[in-house]
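Archive maintenance. Older records in this collection stored only the sequence; we are now back-filling the structure field for every entry so that each record is complete. The fields below show one back-filled record exactly as it appears after the update. Entries are processed alphabetically, and S-layer domain protein is next in the queue.

ARCHIVE ENTRY
Title: S-layer domain protein
Organism field: Methanothrix harundinacea
Length field: 315
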Amino acid sequence: MNSNHGPAPNWAMALAASILILALALTPGTLAYTYGYMYRPPEPTIVIESSVSPEVLMPGDTGIVSIVIENSADQYVVSYQREDFSFTVPIYRVELKGTRGLEVLSDPYVDVGTIGPGDRIAVYFNVRADEKTTDGTCFLDARLVSGYEEAPSEMNRKVPVKVDSSDVMLIQAEAPTSSSASLDVANPRKNALNAVTIVPEAAGVEFSPKEYYIGTMEPDEIFTIDFDLKTASPAEEIDLRFRARFKNGDTWHESGVYTTTLRPGADGSSGGRRPPGEGRGGMTTAAAAVLLPTVIGGAYFWRRRRNRPLSHHRS
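Back-filled structure field:
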C-alpha cells in the first residue's frame, strides 16, 4: 500500500498563518489597538473661563457673564504620521442657557471665527436675576461647539452666578440731638457698591446736606456720616427717616427705611462727635484698621474697614 504521508501542502501552511494573524488582529491590546492609537490625529486643548459683572447679583439685577475661550496650543502646525495637522481652531457656536430664577437675555453666538495657538476670544451674555430669586449660587449651562468641520467637538461647562439680597445697612452711630444726627453706613456684601447716597426725611426738619453722597463702598466698608439739623418744633418728638440709594452694577436699588427718634431736650451734651463704632462710654466696639477723616463737599465723615463678624458665613 502506498503511503500518503509527506510534507504538508503549501496552501495548508498559508491558511494556518492567516488564521493566526486574524486572531491577533481581533485581540484587544494588540495590532488593532496599536493601529487605531497610532493614527489618532492630535488635537489642541481649548480652555474656557468665565466671570460675572457685578460679581454678586441682587434679585432684579441685570448683569454680564463673560466667557473667554483660549487655544492653549503652542504651535500652529504639528506633523504626525507623515501628515500635517493645524492647531488653529474654528469656533462654530457658543451658547448660554438660563436656569430657574436666572434668565439669559442674549442669543447664542454663531460662526464666531477661529483662534490660533495662544490666542483667546471673549463673548458676552446679558443675564437677569428674577425679583424672587433666592440667595445662593445659580449654575448656567455654557455650550461650545468647535474643532474640525468633519468632526466638530462639543464642550459643556457650568457657569456659577452668585445672588445675594443684602443691601446697604444704616445704623444709628449715636443718639440724634437738636442740631445733628449721625449714622453708620455699612456695605455687608461681598462686592463693591457704587453711587451710594443717603437720603434723609422728617416732617418739620431741615437737613444739611439734603442728600449725603458717599460714592463707592468696598465690601465690609463702613462710613460714619453727620447731618446738621434745624427743627421747626424742638420741643416735639420727631421721627428721622433715612434710606440708602445705590447701584449694584448698572441696576439702581433702595434700602429699607431706617428710623430713629429725635427726643425733646437732646442737646448733644455727650461730648461731640466720636470716631465710628465708639459708644457712649468711649470704648471702640468694632475693630478698625484705618480711621481716615475725610471732607467731601463740606460734609464730614469717618471711613474705615470693618472686620467681618465670626458668625458671618463665607461661601
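Update note: The chain has a mean pLDDT of 78. The chain has two domains: 46-163, 169-305.
Entry marked complete.
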